[in-house]
Amino acid sequence: MARPDPHPLAIFSLCPYSENEGAMLCINHPENLHNVSRQQKGGYGLDVGFHLPGSSSGTLATLGRGIGVDIYLAGSAISRIQCTFEIDLNTGFIMLSDRSSTGSTQVFGNDALPFERERHQRRILVQANLNTRIGIGGVRHDLIQFELMWHQDPMQITTIIKQNHIILRSVATNPRVARTEDEPPTELPSQRETRLHTPGQLPAIMRYVTVGHKLGEGAFGTVHQAIDVDSGNIMAVKVIKRPKGLQQQAHWKNLLRREIEILSQLNHPHIVDYITSQHWNEPQVEIFMGLKEGTLQSLIECGSFQPFVIANIVLPQMLQALDCIASNRIVHRDVKPENILYVTDPNDRSQILFQLGDFGLAKYIVDPASFAGSRIFMAPEMFQGGSNTTKLDIWSLFVTMMWTLDTQGFRQNQTYYQSQPETTVQRLIYLRDEEITFSYFNGADERIDSPLFFAATLTVWDDNLKNTHRLIKPQI
């Protein structure tokens, strides 16, 4: 007998699309009667949610004509395991995976981003406004057609899963849950590898949907939180507008290509992870990177942590990042709080991972010198036409630490310092903050250019990076 309402743990129901005959047969099949419910908009549907036993910890429902499936699909054109609805345990999003031997599962309709042959995984995101109609079986994949009727907001489901790290399941009453030995549980597929490439390569187009509010917006374009439709991965997409003038376009394209070229060859835990880019010949270029929670600037300004605590964490991590790019003969040239991104451990908010980002102004050391960067964080020698060396980034990190610790009211007086950075910041290096000494960062000739050697001078940092003592100027 059908339930009068969908199961309390149901996320969505599979309802016959336009009274499709194959779907109606599934609703009325004896093997599915325990899972049928009356829908709020009328008619009946098969509930999919946490109440089903599933075949693994990340599977909501298995559909097919085999023994032990959660939803039975009759017909010789149906595989024993036709498809599954799965939860990506990293992101909490729900994916539809085509498990059929003939690839006979597909999505249809105005909101559809269908499976594509060139992608090596037949796995696709489903949401309340995306891929809401599925077809199963036959040459045209339309013998059985269901419409997904959502009962819970997918974003709320995501939050619940990510907070609890488990999928809560009730004891199912399905008499067909026992699997036979010849049908082992179906495991989740491994995730697609990150696509690292330069603009000259032609990978499959990144298909995505944006979620939530914009992460940032400026004259360059916008940054959105996005979901990769084909993997379920969360990422950040930077949509960059092409300038109007031909000369500006050439400069704009060089900056972007330089950033992509550098990021695609770097792989370091403290450097932002580049995924892919596309649409280089269109009005807007899209660059995809790992999603972060914010910047060092936003973290300090929110006041959730003491500046000294943050300084103890960010300094050694950024030194590692600078050592990585220096070993690749790259100068970042724009190290500053808003270009240092972070993520926190969801189980322990005090565990913070910082990553250096925005390599648009970066240059190889062999490139000719040019004036670039944010003035207040720029090394003094750049105002006298100095060359590009890794010493520039060491200076910028030093100023970033002064900003973080608010040395001598540095943050509050930033507007004043911005007007004459080459002289103001030079004077500040002789002032001693109670936590750390900066006299080590004097003129360019004396400033060490190896981040790794600089890190070695921090000999009095304890194992937990909770206390620092005076930095000692190295004997060179």
From TrEMBL:
ATP binds at K238. One of its GO terms (molecular function) is MAP kinase activity. It comes from the Eukaryota. Keywords: ATP-binding, Kinase, Nucleotide-binding, Serine/threonine-protein kinase, Transferase. InterPro entries: FHA_dom (IPR000253), Kinase-like_dom_sf (IPR011009), MAP_kinase_kinase_kinase (IPR050538), Prot_kinase_dom (IPR000719), Protein_kinase_ATP_BS (IPR017441), Ser/Thr_kinase_AS (IPR008271), SMAD_FHA_dom_sf (IPR008984). The keyword Nucleotide-binding applies. Residues 61-104 form the FHA domain. It catalyses: L-threonyl-[protein] + ATP = O-phospho-L-threonyl-[protein] + ADP + H(+); L-seryl-[protein] + ATP = O-phospho-L-seryl-[protein] + ADP + H(+). Residues 209-476 form the Protein kinase domain. PANTHER family: MAP KINASE KINASE KINASE SSK2-RELATED-RELATED (PTHR48016), MAPKK KINASE (PTHR48016:SF56). Belongs to the protein kinase superfamily. CAMK Ser/Thr protein kinase family. CHEK2 subfamily. This is mitogen-activated protein kinase. It comes from Aaosphaeria arxii CBS 175.79. The lineage of its organism: Eukaryota, Fungi, Dikarya, Ascomycota, Pezizomycotina.
